Protein backbone atom coordinates (compact mmCIF):
# COMPACT_ATOMS: atom_id res chain seq x y z
CA UNK A 1 0.00 0.00 0.00
CA UNK A 2 1.04 3.58 -0.64
CA UNK A 3 1.40 6.13 2.13
CA UNK A 4 -0.57 9.37 2.09
CA UNK A 5 0.95 12.71 2.87
CA UNK A 6 -1.05 14.76 5.36
CA UNK A 7 -0.25 17.92 7.30
CA UNK A 8 -2.34 20.03 9.63
CA UNK A 9 -1.16 23.40 10.98
CA UNK A 10 -2.91 26.15 12.97
CA UNK A 11 -2.38 29.54 11.31
CA UNK A 12 -2.19 32.71 13.37
CA UNK A 13 -3.90 35.97 12.51
CA UNK A 14 -2.10 38.02 9.89
CA UNK A 15 -1.27 35.07 7.62
CA UNK A 16 -4.62 34.53 5.89
CA UNK A 17 -4.43 36.90 2.93
CA UNK A 18 -1.03 35.62 1.81
CA UNK A 19 -2.09 32.01 2.29
CA UNK A 20 -5.17 32.53 0.10
CA UNK A 21 -3.09 34.20 -2.61
CA UNK A 22 -0.67 31.28 -2.47
CA UNK A 23 -3.16 28.41 -2.74
CA UNK A 24 -5.34 30.19 -5.34
CA UNK A 25 -2.24 31.20 -7.29
CA UNK A 26 -2.94 34.92 -7.25
CA UNK A 27 -0.57 37.89 -7.31
CA UNK A 28 3.07 36.84 -7.02
CA UNK A 29 2.02 33.16 -7.16
CA UNK A 30 0.14 33.45 -10.49
CA UNK A 31 3.19 32.33 -12.50
CA UNK A 32 2.92 28.80 -11.12
CA UNK A 33 1.01 26.61 -13.57
CA UNK A 34 -0.21 23.85 -11.26
CA UNK A 35 -3.62 25.26 -10.25
CA UNK A 36 -6.55 23.02 -11.28
CA UNK A 37 -9.56 24.28 -9.33
CA UNK A 38 -11.01 25.18 -5.98
CA UNK A 39 -14.15 24.71 -3.88
CA UNK A 40 -15.85 25.66 -0.63
CA UNK A 41 -18.91 24.97 1.54
CA UNK A 42 -20.63 25.55 4.90
CA UNK A 43 -20.28 29.34 4.77
CA UNK A 44 -22.57 31.67 6.77
CA UNK A 45 -25.15 33.73 4.89
CA UNK A 46 -22.94 36.83 4.63
CA UNK A 47 -20.21 34.82 2.89
CA UNK A 48 -22.38 32.23 1.15
CA UNK A 49 -20.61 32.62 -2.20
CA UNK A 50 -17.44 34.35 -1.02
CA UNK A 51 -15.31 32.09 1.19
CA UNK A 52 -12.35 34.42 0.83
CA UNK A 53 -14.38 37.11 2.62
CA UNK A 54 -15.13 34.68 5.45
CA UNK A 55 -11.50 33.74 6.10
CA UNK A 56 -10.29 37.32 5.75
CA UNK A 57 -12.91 38.31 8.35
CA UNK A 58 -11.62 35.51 10.58
CA UNK A 59 -8.15 36.99 10.25
CA UNK A 60 -9.50 40.36 11.35
CA UNK A 61 -12.05 39.47 14.04
CA UNK A 62 -11.07 36.07 15.46
CA UNK A 63 -9.99 36.18 19.09
CA UNK A 64 -6.29 36.86 19.65
CA UNK A 65 -5.65 33.53 21.35
CA UNK A 66 -7.39 31.54 18.60
CA UNK A 67 -6.01 30.59 15.18
CA UNK A 68 -7.43 32.43 12.18
CA UNK A 69 -7.84 29.08 10.44
CA UNK A 70 -6.45 25.56 10.28
CA UNK A 71 -4.52 24.61 7.16
CA UNK A 72 -4.59 21.01 5.92
CA UNK A 73 -2.59 19.54 3.06
CA UNK A 74 -3.03 16.05 1.67
CA UNK A 75 -1.97 14.08 -1.38
CA UNK A 76 -4.29 12.51 -3.96
CA UNK A 77 -3.75 9.45 -6.21
CA UNK A 78 -2.15 10.31 -9.55
CA UNK A 79 -3.90 7.39 -11.26
CA UNK A 80 -7.15 9.40 -11.22
CA UNK A 81 -7.90 12.16 -13.70
CA UNK A 82 -7.90 15.79 -12.66
CA UNK A 83 -11.70 15.83 -12.82
CA UNK A 84 -11.96 12.70 -10.66
CA UNK A 85 -9.48 14.09 -8.14
CA UNK A 86 -11.38 17.39 -7.99
CA UNK A 87 -14.51 15.44 -7.05
CA UNK A 88 -12.49 13.40 -4.54
CA UNK A 89 -11.05 16.56 -2.97
CA UNK A 90 -14.56 17.88 -2.35
CA UNK A 91 -15.62 14.61 -0.73
CA UNK A 92 -12.59 14.56 1.55
CA UNK A 93 -13.01 18.19 2.62
CA UNK A 94 -16.71 17.57 3.36
CA UNK A 95 -15.77 14.59 5.53
CA UNK A 96 -13.01 16.46 7.38
CA UNK A 97 -15.06 19.61 7.92
CA UNK A 98 -18.13 17.96 9.49
CA UNK A 99 -20.12 21.16 8.91
CA UNK A 100 -17.26 23.60 9.50
CA UNK A 101 -16.71 26.37 6.94
CA UNK A 102 -13.97 25.48 4.49
CA UNK A 103 -12.34 26.27 1.18
CA UNK A 104 -9.67 24.38 -0.73
CA UNK A 105 -7.44 24.57 -3.78
CA UNK A 106 -6.41 21.61 -5.91
CA UNK A 107 -2.91 21.67 -7.43
CA UNK A 108 -1.32 19.20 -9.82
CA UNK A 109 2.34 20.04 -10.48
CA UNK A 110 4.70 17.67 -12.25
CA UNK A 111 7.17 16.12 -9.82
CA UNK A 112 10.69 17.29 -10.65
CA UNK A 113 12.50 13.98 -10.23
CA UNK A 114 9.98 11.41 -11.47
CA UNK A 115 8.14 13.52 -14.07
CA UNK A 116 4.74 12.27 -12.88
CA UNK A 117 1.80 14.39 -11.65
CA UNK A 118 1.78 15.25 -7.95
CA UNK A 119 -1.92 16.01 -7.21
CA UNK A 120 -2.58 17.47 -3.78
CA UNK A 121 -4.98 19.74 -1.90
CA UNK A 122 -4.50 22.77 0.32
CA UNK A 123 -7.53 23.20 2.56
CA UNK A 124 -8.58 25.90 5.02
CA UNK A 125 -10.92 25.11 7.92
CA UNK A 126 -12.65 27.27 10.51
CA UNK A 127 -14.26 25.89 13.65
CA UNK A 128 -16.98 28.59 13.56
CA UNK A 129 -19.94 26.41 12.59
CA UNK A 130 -22.95 28.36 11.35
CA UNK A 131 -26.07 27.79 13.51
CA UNK A 132 -28.56 29.70 11.37
CA UNK A 133 -28.53 32.87 13.46
CA UNK A 134 -28.08 35.97 11.33
CA UNK A 135 -24.81 37.61 12.39
CA UNK A 136 -22.48 40.24 10.97
CA UNK A 137 -18.89 39.23 10.13
CA UNK A 138 -17.59 40.77 13.35
CA UNK A 139 -20.37 39.17 15.42
CA UNK A 140 -19.63 35.74 13.93
CA UNK A 141 -16.21 35.58 15.59
CA UNK A 142 -17.15 36.78 19.06
CA UNK A 143 -17.00 34.50 22.08
CA UNK A 144 -19.82 31.94 22.04
CA UNK A 145 -22.68 32.55 24.50
CA UNK A 146 -24.30 29.22 25.42
CA UNK A 147 -27.17 30.83 27.35
CA UNK A 148 -27.99 33.46 24.73
CA UNK A 149 -26.51 32.23 21.42
CA UNK A 150 -27.84 35.21 19.49
CA UNK A 151 -25.76 37.52 21.68
CA UNK A 152 -22.44 35.76 21.06
CA UNK A 153 -20.55 34.43 18.11
CA UNK A 154 -20.78 31.03 16.45
CA UNK A 155 -19.70 28.07 18.58
CA UNK A 156 -16.16 27.04 17.70
CA UNK A 157 -15.60 23.32 17.21
CA UNK A 158 -12.37 21.90 18.55
CA UNK A 159 -11.94 24.34 21.42
CA UNK A 160 -10.80 22.91 24.73
CA UNK A 161 -9.55 19.59 23.35
CA UNK A 162 -7.06 18.04 25.80
CA UNK A 163 -3.53 17.69 24.33
CA UNK A 164 -3.75 13.91 24.62
CA UNK A 165 -6.73 13.90 22.22
CA UNK A 166 -5.14 16.08 19.54
CA UNK A 167 -3.00 13.18 18.29
CA UNK A 168 -6.06 10.91 18.10
CA UNK A 169 -7.93 13.60 16.18
CA UNK A 170 -5.10 13.87 13.66
CA UNK A 171 -4.95 10.10 13.21
CA UNK A 172 -8.72 10.07 12.64
CA UNK A 173 -8.38 12.71 9.94
CA UNK A 174 -5.71 10.62 8.22
CA UNK A 175 -8.03 7.60 8.40
CA UNK A 176 -10.90 9.58 6.87
CA UNK A 177 -8.69 10.70 3.99
CA UNK A 178 -7.39 7.17 3.34
CA UNK A 179 -10.85 5.58 3.50
CA UNK A 180 -12.32 8.18 1.14
CA UNK A 181 -9.46 7.78 -1.34
CA UNK A 182 -9.72 3.98 -1.26
CA UNK A 183 -13.48 4.14 -1.81
CA UNK A 184 -12.96 6.32 -4.87
CA UNK A 185 -10.18 4.09 -6.23
CA UNK A 186 -12.44 1.10 -5.83
CA UNK A 187 -15.32 2.88 -7.58
CA UNK A 188 -13.11 3.65 -10.59
CA UNK A 189 -11.75 0.10 -10.85
CA UNK A 190 -8.23 0.66 -9.50
CA UNK A 191 -6.52 -1.92 -7.29
CA UNK A 192 -4.18 0.64 -5.71
CA UNK A 193 -4.84 1.48 -2.06
CA UNK A 194 -3.41 3.92 0.49
CA UNK A 195 -2.87 3.37 4.21
CA UNK A 196 -3.03 5.99 6.95
CA UNK A 197 -1.04 3.90 9.44
CA UNK A 198 2.67 4.28 10.15
CA UNK A 199 5.13 1.84 8.59
CA UNK A 200 5.65 0.23 12.01
CA UNK A 201 1.90 -0.28 12.46
CA UNK A 202 1.81 -1.94 9.04
CA UNK A 203 4.69 -4.24 9.97
CA UNK A 204 7.01 -2.70 7.37
CA UNK A 205 10.65 -2.46 8.42
CA UNK A 206 12.32 0.41 6.57
CA UNK A 207 13.04 4.08 6.99
CA UNK A 208 10.28 6.38 5.73
CA UNK A 209 11.01 8.31 2.52
CA UNK A 210 11.42 11.98 3.42
CA UNK A 211 8.69 14.23 2.05
CA UNK A 212 10.06 16.95 -0.19
CA UNK A 213 8.14 20.18 -0.55
CA UNK A 214 7.59 21.92 -3.90
CA UNK A 215 9.87 24.72 -2.71
CA UNK A 216 12.68 22.17 -2.28
CA UNK A 217 12.12 20.88 -5.81
CA UNK A 218 12.17 24.42 -7.16
CA UNK A 219 15.49 24.90 -5.40
CA UNK A 220 16.81 21.67 -6.94
CA UNK A 221 15.62 22.78 -10.37
CA UNK A 222 17.35 26.13 -9.95
CA UNK A 223 20.53 24.38 -8.81
CA UNK A 224 20.41 22.03 -11.78
CA UNK A 225 19.99 24.91 -14.21
CA UNK A 226 22.89 26.75 -12.58
CA UNK A 227 25.10 23.68 -12.83
CA UNK A 228 24.20 23.26 -16.51
CA UNK A 229 25.04 26.92 -17.08
CA UNK A 230 28.39 26.46 -15.33
CA UNK A 231 29.23 23.44 -17.49
CA UNK A 232 28.49 25.44 -20.63
CA UNK A 233 30.78 28.23 -19.49
CA UNK A 234 33.45 25.97 -17.98
CA UNK A 235 33.22 22.56 -19.72
CA UNK A 236 36.59 21.53 -18.26
CA UNK A 237 35.47 21.87 -14.64
CA UNK A 238 31.75 22.50 -14.31
CA UNK A 239 29.91 21.01 -11.36
CA UNK A 240 27.87 17.87 -12.00
CA UNK A 241 24.31 17.15 -10.89
CA UNK A 242 22.78 13.75 -10.40
CA UNK A 243 19.14 13.04 -9.61
CA UNK A 244 18.26 10.68 -6.80
CA UNK A 245 15.62 7.96 -6.90
CA UNK A 246 12.18 8.81 -8.23
CA UNK A 247 9.80 10.42 -5.80
CA UNK A 248 6.28 9.26 -5.04
CA UNK A 249 3.76 10.17 -2.38
Compact overview of the structure:
The chain has 249 residues and is of the alpha+beta class. It is built from 6 helices and 7 strands; from the N terminus they run E-E-H-E-H-E-H-E-E-H-H-E-H. The strands form 2 sheets. A 5-stranded antiparallel sheet has the order 2-4-6-5-3. Strands 1-7 form a two-stranded parallel sheet.
Fold blueprint:
Blueprint: E1 2-3, E2 6-11, H1 16-23, E3 35-41, H2 51-61, E4 69-75, H3 82-97, E5 102-107, E6 120-125, H4 137-140, H5 163-187, E7 194-195, H6 214-233
Parallel strand pairs: 1-7
Antiparallel strand pairs: 2-4, 3-5, 4-6, 5-6
Helix pairs in contact: 3-5
Task: Explain this structure.
The protein is of the alpha+beta class and 249 residues long. It has a single domain, classed as 2-Layer Sandwich (BirA Bifunctional Protein, domain 2), CATH 3.30.930. 34% of the residues lie in helices and 14% in strands. It contains 6 helices and 7 strands, in the order E-E-H-E-H-E-H-E-E-H-H-E-H. It has helices at 16-23, 51-61, 82-97, 137-140, 163-187, 214-233, and strands spanning 2-3, 6-11, 35-41, 69-75, 102-107, 120-125, 194-195. The chain has a 5-stranded antiparallel beta sheet. Helix 3 (82-97) runs antiparallel to helix 5. The longest helix is centred in the C-terminal third of the chain and has 25 residues, at 163-187. The chain is globular. It starts with a strand and ends in a 16-residue tail after the last helix. Mean pLDDT is 85; it is low at 237-249.
Amino acid sequence: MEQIHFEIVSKVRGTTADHIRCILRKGAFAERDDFIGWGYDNQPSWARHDPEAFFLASDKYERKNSPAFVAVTFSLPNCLSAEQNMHLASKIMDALARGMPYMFAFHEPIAFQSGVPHPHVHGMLSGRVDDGIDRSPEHTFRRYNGKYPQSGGCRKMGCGIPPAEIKNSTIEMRRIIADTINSELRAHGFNDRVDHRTLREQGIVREPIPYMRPSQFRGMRKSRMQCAHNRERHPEGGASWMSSESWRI
